[in-house]
Design brief:
single chain; 99 residues; mainly alpha; 79% helix; elongated
């Protein structure tokens, strides 16, 4: 699973970058050669954040604590919402023929 997540880091990077552009109404903290502060954070987060979420998910699966499972459910809901925002933003900016 970790390999699968790391291989999809480029996809997470694209979704994160497009979601960032959509939330900020343009490149805020980004440069043309992707060496701005937001670009550097996204470059690391696109690999580390999904791996962190997966590690937490594994820990929760082995736990019997109910509160831990509720917290992880909220984290997963936020991750799904962020992914959905990134998919919509990427479609609007990269694929939509009328925009």
């Amino acid at each position: 699973m970790r390999t699968f997540i790391v291989v999809h880091g480029v996809w997470f990077s694209r979704l994160s970058l497009m979601g960032w552009f959509m939330l900020n109404q343009g490149p805020n903290g980004n440069t043309r050669i992707l060496d701005g502060p937001a670009d550097i954070i996204i470059s690391f987060a696109c690999y580390l954040l999904p791996l962190l979420i997966f590690a937490l998910y594994q820990r929760v699966a082995d736990s019997s604590e109910a509160w831990f499972k509720w917290v992880m459910s909220a984290v997963m809901l936020l991750a799904v919402a962020a992914t959905g925002l990134g998919i919509i933003a990427a479609y609007m900016m990269l694929q939509s023929p009328h925009l």
